[in-house]
C-alpha cells in the first residue's frame, strides 16, 4: 500500500518538497540542504532524503523555484570588443531575449573586452565575481583565463563558455558547435569546389589561441592532408577577426602565392577578404569558404565571391546559454539535444 505522500504525488502528478520531507521524516530545511548539497547534514538524513526523492520520483518545479527566488538571477555576458559582426548578432539576440528573461526572473548585462589579451581578459572575468550569479564568457583558451574562471566558480558563480571553449577550466557548460567537425566540413567543401586542381590554399584565422579557431584549423588540416593531397595548405595567418587586417593579409597572400586556388577564413573578417578578391579581379576564381552568415557573407555568396558558408545560430546559442544559466538555480534537467548547436551549411541557393 503506497504511503500518503506517494498517493498525493500520484494524484497531482508531481511530488513536492513537503512530500519528500514527510516521506523522509525530516524537516523542510534539511531537504533543502540535502538537495542543494549544503554542509552540516547527518549522513543518515542525506540517505533518507535521497531515498524519498527516488521513491516519489521528485522533480523540482522550475516555475515554483523561480517564484521563490527573492532576487533576479543576474547573468553577465562577456563578449569580444571590436567590429566582429557575429558578436554584434549575439548582442542583438541578448537584447531580443528581454521578454523571456522577464518571465524567468533573469536580468542580463553585456560587457566587452579584448579577448586576444589574456591578462586583460582574466582581470575582466574576475571583475564579474560580485556582479552576477552566472557568467557567460567567450574567451581565449589560456592558463590565466582558465585560472580566472576557476576562481569565479570557487566564489559560487556559475560559468558557461560561449562559442569558444576553455575545456580545462571548471566551467559548467560549453555552448557552441563542434568546431573540429566544422573545420572538417570546411575542408570537404573547399576540396570539392576546387574540383581536383593543383595549387595552394591560404588560411586566415583570428587567433590560434582561440579554441574554436584552433579546432577548426585542426579539422580542416586533417581533411586536406588525407583527402586532397594536390592542395598545399599554407601556414595560417592571424587576422585578429579584424576586417582591415584580413584585407591586408589576403592581399599579401595573393601577391606572394600566384598558385593560390582557395582561401579558408576560420574566423571573422570575411568582408576584408572579399574586398581584396574583388579588387584583384579573382573573386569567384579563388574558392573562398568561411564561417557565420553575416550580412557581408550573404552578399558574398550571392555575388559569387564566396563559395560556401558554415554557420552557427546566434539566437540558439544565446537561448541555450540563458536556459542553462537558469537551470543551475532551479535544478531543471538539462536536455543535451536542446542545447546542441548544429552546423549549418549555406550556399547561394539555400539562403534563409
Detail the topology: elements first, then pairings:
Layout: H1 4-12, H2 17-24, H3 28-35, H4 43-56, H5 62-68, E1 73-80, H6 85-95, H7 98-103, E2 106-113, H8 118-126, E3 134-137, H9 143-154, E4 158-162, E5 173-175, H10 179-194, E6 199-205, H11 211-227, E7 231-233, E8 237-238, H12 243-256, E9 260-265, H13 270-280, E10 287-291, H14 295-303, E11 308-311, H15 314-330, H16 336-339, E12 344-346
Parallel strand pairs: 1-2, 1-3, 3-4, 4-5, 6-7, 6-8, 6-9, 9-10, 10-11
Antiparallel strand pairs: 11-12
Explain the overall architecture:
The chain is α/β, with parallel strands linked by helices and 352 residues long. The protein folds into 3 domains: 4-59, Orthogonal Bundle (434 Repressor (Amino-terminal Domain)), CATH 1.10.260.40; 72-177 and 314-339, Rossmann fold, CATH 3.40.50.2300; 179-311, Rossmann fold, CATH 3.40.50. Helices cover 49% and strands 16% of the residues. It contains 16 helices and 12 strands. It has helices at 4-12, 17-24, 28-35, 43-56, 62-68, 85-95, 98-103, 118-126, 143-154, 179-194, 211-227, 243-256, 270-280, 295-303, 314-330, 336-339; strands at 73-80, 106-113, 134-137, 158-162, 173-175, 199-205, 231-233, 237-238, 260-265, 287-291, 308-311, 344-346. The strands form 2 sheets. Strands 6, 7, 8, 9, 10, 11 and 12 form a 7-stranded mixed sheet that branches. It has a 5-stranded parallel sheet with strand order 2-1-3-4-5, sandwiched between helices. β6, α11 (211-227) and β7 form a beta-alpha-beta unit. α2 (17-24) crosses α3 (28-35). The longest helix has 17 residues, at 211-227. It is elongated, with a radius of gyration of 25 Å. The N and C termini lie far apart (58 Å). The model is unreliable at 5-12 (pLDDT under 50).
Amino acid at each position: 500500500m503506497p504511503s500518503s505522500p506517494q498517493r498525493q504525488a500520484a494524484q497531482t502528478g508531481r511530488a513536492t518538497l513537503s512530500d519528500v520531507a514527510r516521506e523522509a521524516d525530516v524537516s523542510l530545511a534539511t531537504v533543502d540542504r540535502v538537495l542543494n548539497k549544503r554542509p552540516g547534514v547527518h549522513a543518515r538524513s542525506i540517505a533518507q532524503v535521497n531515498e524519498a526523492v527516488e521513491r516519489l520520483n521528485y522533480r523540482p518545479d522550475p516555475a515554483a523555484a523561480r517564484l521563490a527566488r527573492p532576487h533576479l538571477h543576474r547573468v553577465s555576458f562577456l563578449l569580444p570588443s571590436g567590429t566582429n559582426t557575429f558578436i554584434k548578432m549575439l548582442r542583438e539576440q541578448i537584447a531580443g531575449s528581454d521578454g523571456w528573461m522577464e518571465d524567468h526572473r533573469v536580468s542580463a548585462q553585456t560587457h566587452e573586452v579584448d579577448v586576444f589579451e589574456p591578462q586583460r581578459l582574466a582581470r575582466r572575468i574576475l571583475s564579474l565575481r560580485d556582479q552576477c550569479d552566472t557568467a557567460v564568457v567567450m574567451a581565449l583558451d589560456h592558463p590565466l583565463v582558465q585560472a580566472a574562471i576557476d576562481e569565479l566558480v570557487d566564489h559560487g558563480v556559475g560559468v558557461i563558455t560561449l562559442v569558444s571553449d576553455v575545456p580545462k577550466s571548471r566551467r559548467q557548460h560549453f555552448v557552441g558547435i563542434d568546431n573540429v567537425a566544422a573545420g572538417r566540413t570546411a575542408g570537404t567543401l573547399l576540396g570539392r569546389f576546387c574540383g581536383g586542381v593543383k595549387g595552394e590554399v591560404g588560411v586566415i584565422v583570428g587567433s590560434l589561441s582561440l579554441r574554436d579557431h584552433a579546432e577548426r584549423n585542426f579539422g580542416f588540416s586533417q581533411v586536406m592532408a588525407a583527402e586532397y593531397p594536390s592542395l598545399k595548405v599554407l601556414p595560417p595567418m592571424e587576422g585578429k577577426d579584424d576586417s582591415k587586417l584580413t584585407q591586408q593579409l589576403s592581399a599579401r597572400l595573393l601577391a606572394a602565392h600566384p598558385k593560390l586556388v582557395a582561401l579558408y577564413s576560420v574566423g571573422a573578417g570575411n568582408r576584408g577578404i572579399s574586398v581584396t578578391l574583388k579588387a584583384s579581379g579573382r573573386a569567384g576564381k579563388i574558392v573562398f569558404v568561411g564561417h557565420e552568415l553575416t550580412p557581408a557573407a550573404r552578399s558574398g555568396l550571392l555575388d559569387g565571391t564566396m563559395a560556401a558558408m558554415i554557420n552557427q545560430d546566434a539566437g540558439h546559442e544565446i537561448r541555450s546559454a540563458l536556459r542553462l544559466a537558469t537551470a543551475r538555480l532551479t535544478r531543471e534537467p538539462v536536455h543535451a539535444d536542446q542545447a546542441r548547436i548544429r552546423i549549418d551549411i549555406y550556399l547561394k541557393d539555400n539562403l534563409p
